[in-house]
Design goal:
Length: 118
């Protein structure tokens, strides 16, 4: 069932907020308290869950399929760009495994979001 316009707006705001948090968290130095706090957790699982959640919000909150697809493609590019930029952040680095986890999360999250609004 397609969400109401009001719910779509809230989902869009949540998606944009999540993107901002993702960018900030991705570019924090490895020595920051937030990164050290999640350091004991599985890094690839965190990537998967973050991107899956964002994809669900983007797809469920989109009013058209092309908007949903564009949002997911933006996140694919953003994931690669953020991981690339981590090379220049102290204590962080580029990992293809992170990019793979991002994209797998996007695929699963977009699929779930599409299923939720069908």
């Amino acid at each position: 069932m397609k969400p109401s316009k009001k719910l779509q707006r809230w989902l869009h705001v949540a998606w944009l907020t999540g993107l901002v948090l993702l960018v900030v968290a991705s570019l924090l130095p490895g020595s920051s308290p937030a990164i050290r706090w999640v350091g004991g957790l599985n890094d690839k699982l965190l990537h998967f869950l973050a991107y899956a959640a964002l994809a669900v919000l983007a797809v469920a909150g989109a009013d058209e399929r092309r908007v949903a697809l564009r949002s997911v493609l933006i996140m694919v590019v953003l994931g690669v760009l953020l991981d690339y930029l981590q090379q220049f952040v102290p204590g962080r680095g580029f990992e293809m495994g992170d990019v793979a986890a991002d994209n797998l999360g996007l695929l699963c999250g977009a699929s779930l979001g599409a299923w939720l609004v069908r």
